[in-house]
Amino acid sequence: MNTSTPPRPTHAGHVEQMAERLWSAVSAADEYAATELVLRMLDEGAAPESVLLDVIARVQGKVGEEWAANRISVAQEHAATAINDRAVAAVSVHPAARIAATRGRITVACVDGEWHALPARLLAEVLKLRGWRVDYLGAQVPTPHLIAHLHSTRADAVALSSSIATRLPAAHAAITACQAVGVPVLVGGAAFGPEGRYATLLGADAWAPDARAAADRLTGVRLPMPHSDHQQFDDLPHLADQEYTMVARSSATLVRTVFTALEDAFPAMRSYSELQRERTGEDLAHMVEFLATSLYLDDEELFTSFITWTAQILVARGVPAHSLPPALDLLARELKDFPRAAGILQAATHTLTTCACT
Asked: Which positions ≥6 away from 141 have C-beta within 8 Å?
């Protein structure tokens, strides 16, 4: 078996060309062409790690960009992701990727409620290439099941992945639970914010911006052993005001109330089709969920960034972004007795009225 660390790519132009070819196969929903391409690259001597991170991961990033720009549908995005996942599987069974496990054992999982599993899958495969024994648990792993697994495997570390910020409360619970049984935690994914700001806030032992950096960190200096007396409340003392708990528990009621009132505040909604009304309800639910998460973290920038992104997504889909301020105003009216929530909503309204996204 090959036990050496795969070299990093040296021909950027060739890698870019291969990524373009994979994108062509993926966007055409041609699974066979996609897997044949990555296998041919490996047969021709490409490093498996480079194929995973510089080609497949790069194409997956474009999938997300194309969806956000409304150039592909949700169904097409799901199909493309599934094909990329198949390409990862093809790489993992190629002879060039068969590396002896010589380092230790790492558990890789997505936090509870996180369905975007490909980033974690990529990390798991890269860690195998670096000589680790990896337990890849996949998407949406409930914390009790994760802890039960750790008790039976004695992992050296846990790598937790999350792409959506609203899963951060669940991530916090998982981080604390893993540390309580003596296992350090590295986290990664877009959910943890720019430069991993929320990773630090939630008490993670390490953070990495991508799979290669995560593998480098885990393969380098051993993660520090966590303090067994670490408590979630110690990280976020502002939760004592109960605003997060109240908003999270009443989210369904808030969505229904705002949805009903929005027809008067935004008359154009009266002519919406049934599908448009359904999408509006979904947008309101996301809005409340992100507000609750912002309260959990005591970070208004998380919510204002979400609102700005939502405005851009709506515009890309031909929906006027000026439908958002009335919804924010109605939500603020319902939460007038919650000072932190009111401040976050006011900041979001200000951001919408001053940015070019509307």
From this structure: 109, 110, 111, 112
